[in-house]
Description:
The protein is of the alpha/beta class. The chain contains six helices and ten strands, in the order E-E-E-H-E-H-H-E-H-E-E-E-E-H-E-H. It has a six-stranded mixed β-sheet, with helices on both faces. A two-stranded antiparallel ribbon has the order 2-3.
Amino acid sequence: MKILAIIPARGGSKGVPKKNIKLLGKMPLIEYSINAAKASSKITAIVVSTDDAEIAIAAEVCGCKPPFVRPSELAQDDTASIEVVRHAIAFYESQGVFFEAICLLQPTTPFRAKGFIDEAIQKFIASGADSLVSVLPIPHEYNPHWAFEERETGLLKIATGESHIISRRQELPKAYHRDGSVYLTKIEVAKSGSFYGNSIAFIESNAACYVNIDTMQDWEKAARMVDQFKG
């Protein structure tokens, strides 16, 4: 399967200014995801999608020079990641280069266990699903079957829509949250505007690798973890 790894890295970070090129340990943040993609034996090509000249230079130093500049209208706070992916796909197809799937690697989740991307790709291909996401288990106390939503009346309802709450922890179905490490999507599904399609496979990540950098507190957590993961 021909797979395009897309690393989205816009320049307008607010929670951690210039985080994509900020040094985490001895490397800029973006280099962790570039190195992870380069270590994969199953990724066909890698592209860094950025609107920022400094990020483009950092990516080039890492051996991944961006072949295009992302338009500013696709680098806003509210820009959906799928639109960034569709732009990258359209660029390559305009050059006569076609892929069967994309692998989105977010720089904000820099640490991935060795071989994890290839394991995810293997599972994705074997599943035949439209997509695959990496996940972590949700602790039972946060299980959606034990969560509530506020009604318009100001009263609560069970978030899953059930009329009666599951009383015993042992009866709760397993639930997961996306950890942001790996998204795999068939190309036609992504081009239609979805990361997921009609069938979603999953792979469980190593919780010891997990950090998703959005705030300075997240950055400080990542800095404490960095010696375990050299990229």
